[in-house]
Amino acid sequence: MQVDVEEMRSGANRSYNAASFAMEGADQLSRSNVGAGIFGDFSAAESFHGALSEAHSNHIQRRRQHETHLGVLGDKGHKTASVFVEMEERNAEALRSEL
After folding, report:
1. What is the pTM of this model?
2. pLDDT tens track of the chain, all 99 residues?
3. What's the Cα-to-Cα distance from 80 to each of 20, 25, 34, 40, 41, rounded to whole Å?
């Protein structure tokens, strides 16, 4: 089995970058909102505003979840790469000690 540790680390770093973009998107979305009266002052407009506000909140929450999950994925990628490097070093040392 061959493992490309540098590629694993590169993928982990890409996950961190994606997490950062998700965070920036969530931050940007959270700084904006749609005013209550923009669609008019009647029940259908208020209902639409409520649905739009709920969707807005859901998008922010989903982006924050993506940020978390992508960060965890990056952490796991680096941890796995380190485990492979340590295993390779232990195996190489074991082979050297047998010679």
Report:
1. 0.83
2. 788 999 999 999 999 999 999 999 999 999 998 888 889 999 999 999 999 999 999 999 999 999 999 999 999 999 999 999 999 999 999 999 987
3. 21, 29, 44, 55, 56
